[in-house]
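Example record used in the benchmark description.
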Amino acid sequence: MHHFKHSWPCMTGIIVLALMTAVTANSTEIESLAGNNDLKQLDSMVVTARGMESLVSQTPGGIGIVDQEEISAMNPVSLTNAATRIPGVDKSSDSLWGSAINIRGLGRNSVVFLVDGCRVNTATDINARFGTINPLDIQQIEVLKGPITALHGSGSLGGVVNVITRKGRFTPSPVWEGEITTGIASNPNGIDTHGRATYNSRDFWISASAGYRDHNSYDAGDDKDIHNSQYRDFSFNTALGAKVNPVNTTQVQVQHFDGDEIGIPGKGLSLPTGPDVTYPDTSRTLVNLIHTLTPDTPLIPESRINLFYQKIGRRVRLDNFPGGPMAEIRPQADHETWGLKWQTIFQPRNHRINAGVDLWNWEISNSHRYKEFASGRVGVDASLGNVEQFSGGVFAEDEWRLTDTVSLNLGGRLDAIRAKSDDLYNWITPPAPTMPVTLKQAGEDYSDTSWNAHAGITWGFMPDWTMTFITASSYRAPDLMDRFKYINLGGGVELFGNPDLDPERSLFFEYGFHYTVTDLRFSASAYLNCLDDLITETIVSSTEHRMMNVDEARIYGGEIEAEYFITPRISAMAYVAYTHGDNTRNDEPLPFIAPLNGLLGIRYDTATGFWTSLELEWAADQDRTPRGALESDGWNRLNFRMGHRFTLWGKRQELMAGIDNCFDEEITNHLSTSRGMELMEPGINYLCVWKIKL
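Model output (structure tokens):
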């Protein structure tokens, strides 16, 4: 592992910029970017909302997209850092590596996370699931802000995040493509390496990629070391696609990610204060097969089936306790999900219908906690027995064009849900033979049905202008932890899940309007999300806490964003987002509501391949907090990038250097939890990335 002093940057930055100048000045062939600097398509295509391509400005409900070019320029630690470029999407951190996504005031188990349309199921008490993918493997991040689709079922009260990974493609003639990326950073100091190779042809393609990252703990803006915030991970992905015949296409992929000794400096929702919390090993493996049928008929243009298996292994270590009876606790669990989604597109007159079946099964096993006491005794218990949840649903989405300027979107879904648990005892192996083993949660078998539905309208009321409105009702079924967990909180107090919980429900409204022309994209939206039967830990007695449907909430806000090409080579973008949340049962502000925040940026691209960008991120003070919760101060962060694309030795290359948090500001993310401290964001960071396309 490479170690850099936090104070190296000034000299290194000068050296890097000099190197960029020297390399490009001596390159044998400067790559002209005239063909690459045309105005980009500002009205992007999205597939997550309706299961078929649709323009963002034509789709009711809030949608945000971050593409591979933006991710490459940022060189983010996780996909969450990239997704925060979308207004209304904020970062909630227990760690830098595993930051979670908060969408308009809702996060964790109120946000569905998909990788290539495959649901990622795991515990959300400690952020981890968004860290289990290398950002350089991402082609596009699509975010649905709210329950605006019937495609994805339980958990979309806050929205949906779908990561589309990079793969091969079918081309008229065979072509090999390759890419090697190497980067260094000062804060968190360390290295990134990533390689990718693809063979494309008319009827077959295959791609493979691998990445490795190794970084030390980072320093906050006050130059304070954030203890135990290091991370190291490895990823490997391979995929192939084949046209069996003109109407049948098959795609198979395998993804594997493994993290090692990942520090969690922030406090998860159920973690005690005091000890260090580390992931000595966490992994995600995805295997999926997609078969697409494209009949030569206008009535049924496409039918697709996606079959997948995904396993997430979580191993946690709590050590360095400041005192008391414990020396070390090692919780672990394996989360396995299999799923099948079959959807078919129908196009009768003036309609475009996507209908199908969505099945998935989530099982948690090996959820043991090895406890080593200061006395030397060792015991094993569990917060869950072997538990399992099945969801089977049918859905339909109809895009109905009423006139040339007005279309109606209708969607609905019905799900059957079943959850079951084995008996759970206070000890699997007690630390002393004389300690009694008692039943804490009897095995349960639960079944229910739930539904969601929406209706939206798109009206092109003037040339280049569209207005959208959507109303939706959605749900989140209680997850396996809500239903079946058991935690000894100490002092004779115990926390129990509740098998009889009802689904959380949402009634959602959003209005938006959009203006899109060749050089300008502008949109604004306002929304209201009314939540009922929210599941909360509730004090039942002096010795018992239990998960209950007790809370009600109302969240509303708005967003404005714009992107403008001042000239064909100078572009500017800006957004501002506001969220207001209240717990209406307790008549107090909701926790985890981001303050007023925004982004302002400008970018310049030259005809010779040089580009530079400057962005200002900001957030206001947040003093609307529930009783006992911390307030946070506002902050500003200035980020700078410059790069040069060129051809050297017959290879297309790019050298990029940048500075994050240029003025080393002290930044507290209001949504980040803490362990007896305010978890600060990184201070100034210098980075350099070299990319070679083979």
